[in-house]
UniProtKB/TrEMBL annotation:
Belongs to the RAP1 family. This is Telomeric repeat-binding factor 2-interacting protein 1. The gene is TERF2IP. Its main location: nucleus. Gene3D superfamilies: 1.10.10.2170. Acts both as a regulator of telomere function and as a transcription regulator. Involved in the regulation of telomere length and protection as a component of the shelterin complex (telosome). Does not bind DNA directly: recruited to telomeric double-stranded 5'-TTAGGG-3' repeats via its interaction with terf2. Independently of its function in telomeres, also acts as a transcription regulator: recruited to extratelomeric 5'-TTAGGG-3' sites via its association with terf2 or other factors, and regulates gene expression. One of its GO terms (molecular function) is telomeric DNA binding. GO terms for cellular component: shelterin complex. It comes from Columba livia (Rock dove). The lineage of its organism: Eukaryota, Metazoa, Chordata, Craniata, Vertebrata. Residues 72-147 form the TRF2-interacting telomeric protein/Rap1 C-terminal domain.
Amino acid sequence: MESGSDASYISEELSTQDGDEKSPGEAASVLKTGQEDSALPDTQLQREERPTSTCSSSDVVEEVVKTMQHFMEKFSMDLSTVTQAFLKNTGEVETTSYFLQTGQRLDGYPIWNREDDLGLQKDDECVRSKLIAKFGAENVAKRVAFRKS
């Protein structure tokens, strides 16, 4: 079931990306309206920043989609398998590529699983120490940052 939702999520991201690219005219009219209303300078600033951040997030989504499509072709795997590989390898491209090719992580540590992620969420030093022993301190720090993003 998770694999279907992963594919749906990517499809939704692609749809959102397409929607963002079709809205510059709307964004321009919003900016124009915001500039005419000098009583709300904070709102105007937010409106001006919005198209810039949307553009850069579209670029990131486009790059991720291209990388995933490349891995699907290179390793003859479906979207769900490639998505799961990225999730298990903290979203790292080189590590995921190596994992898809060999079934192992590049650094020799095991891949992350749901139980490990649940342990990571606990505020328990004993559990954290076990995860550090299993994955290494650097990988635990990367995983925490990955899960927050």
